[in-house]
Amino acid sequence: MNRLMALIQREFIENRGAIRTTPIVIGALYIIGALMTIWTTVHFDNDLYSFKEGVRMMAEVPEETRGALIYGSNLLGGSLLFTFVLSVVIFFYLLGALYDDRKDRSILFWKSLPASDTITLLSKLLTAMVLIPLVFWAVYVATQIVTISIASGMVMYAGENPWTLFIALGQPLKAWFMVLASWLAFSIW
Questions:
Q1: How is 124-158 classified by DSSP, letter by letter?
Q2: Which residues are CB-contacts of 83 (< 8 A; sequence separation ≥ 6)?
Q3: b/e string for 58-91 if b means 16 or more Cβ within 10 A?
């Protein structure tokens, strides 16, 4: 078990850019997009009259319709870019998993260690099936929390309660775990 964890840690260290940096960049792009939306709204609507009217109209929509819209579009729809990039990262990680060791001849070093080929392959497979989706999911959840906080601040400024307006109805925990389950199922496929 210790050898397997050491090999998984080696995979993480060797592929740090794809596993760690890529989801952080995507999350930063989402947050920058949210901040640019706020800046544009404030720039073109000084008193935020249009935004306040939009929030008021949103409060008049029935709760079940508003909840389904928020759950589907914002929380699950927000994972589309993460899902696409996750599939590309896993594809290229698996494509280069065995080739890269042979290309730079580091396989000769790794062969001298007391780890069998089975454990090495298992570590690469577990990295692709579990570690990469979990890292992407953690960054996705952190990104969602930041964007929900930004949206809550805007809604509170408009004079509404963000919890009753969209947070409780959107069921973020359910959406986040649905995304994680779909990513893990996708990685098995």
A1: HHHIIIIIHHHHHHHHHHHHHHHHHHHHHHHHHHT
A2: 179, 182, 183, 186
A3: bbeeeeeebbeebbeebbbebbeebbebbeebbe
Whether 75 and 185 have beta carbons less than 8 Å apart is answered as no
With a cut of 70, say whether residue 15 has pLDDT above it. Answer: yes
CA 63 from centre of chain: 27
Query: Which pLDDT tens digit goes with each residue over 124-154?
Result: 888 889 999 999 999 999 998 998 888 888 8
Using CA atoms, how far residue 187 sits from 84, 91, 107, 132, in Å, is 12, 10, 26, 10
pLDDT 10s digits, 16-43: 888 999 999 999 999 998 889 888 877 7
Q: What is the pLDDT of residue 176?
A: 87
Rounded Cα distance between 34 and 100, Å, is: 38
Sorted by sequence, the CB contacts under 8 Å of residue 17 that are 6+ apart come out as none
